[in-house]
Amino acid sequence: MGATVINILAIGDVVGANGCAFLRKTLPAFKKFKHIDVCIVNGENSAQGNGILPQSAEHLFASGADLITTGNHALRRFEIYDTFDNESIPLLRPANFYRTAPGRGYTILDKGSVQIAVINLMGVVYLDNLENPFDCIDRILEEVKDSRIKILDFHAEATGEKRALGFYLDGRISAMFGTHTHVQTADAQILPNGTGYITDLGMTGPIQSVLGVTPSLAIQKIKTNLPVRFENPDGPCRMEGCIFEIDNKTGKTLSVEPVSID
Hints:
Layout: E1 5-11, E2 13-14, H1 16-33, E3 38-42, H2 54-63, E4 67-69, H3 81-85, E5 106-110, E6 115-122, H4 133-143, E7 149-155, H5 159-169, E8 175-179, E9 189-190, E10 196-198, E11 203-206, H6 215-224, E12 237-247, E13 253-261
Parallel strand pairs: 1-3, 2-11, 3-4, 6-7, 7-8, 8-10
Antiparallel strand pairs: 1-12, 5-6, 9-10, 11-12, 12-13
Helix pairs in contact: 1-2
C-alpha cells in the first residue's frame, strides 16, 4: 500500500462454479499487476445455482478476496448462516435486512495506516420491502465516521435508485459501486465532490449467458412464466469490476478504472 494512495478493486457478482474457477485463475495475477491493496468481491451467486455457501466463500477468499459482499440471495442457503454470524470472517449481507437476519451489514478493514469502512446495502425498487437505504446509510455513516475511507456496495435493480444514492452520498463516502444486474455500465466516474462511482460492476462468469444463466432456460422462464431450474452454462468466462484509486489522506477518489477480462 502506498503512503498516500490505496487501490481498491471491486469485483462484480461471481456466478457459480465456472465463475469461481475463472476468478481463481485470473484474480491473483491481476491484483499483483495493478498493485491492488484491497479486493472486495460480491459473492451472492457464487454457489452453484445461486446463493453463497461456506465452500464458495472459502474459495473466494483463497482466490484473493479480502472481503465478500452479497445481496438479495445472501441468505438463500441456510448452511452459510453461521459464517455470516462469525465476526472474524469479513462476509457482509445488506445492512438494511431485518435485524433478525444473520450477519452484519458493514465492517472495518484495518490496513494498519488506514481503516476502511465497507458497507453493503440493498435497493428497494423492484426488490424486497426493506429499510429505506437512504435512511440506513445515514445511520451507518454516523457509526463509521472515524474511518476516512468508506466504500459502499449497493446491490440494487433500478439504475435511477443507484444514481440517486450516488449523488446523495457524493463527498460523504470514498466510492460506491452497484451490483446485482450483472451487466457492466458505461458510467464509471468521479462525482463532483470526489466520490468514485459506477452504476454496476458487471459479472464474473460465463460470457454466453443471460446474467450467468443458460440462455435457453432464461428464455423458457420468460416465455412460459413457469418454474424453471436455472443452470450455469460452460464456456468462456469474463471477470468484471472496477478499480478505485483513493487518496489515503482525504478519502477522495483520484481515478476510476473499469475492469473487463476474458
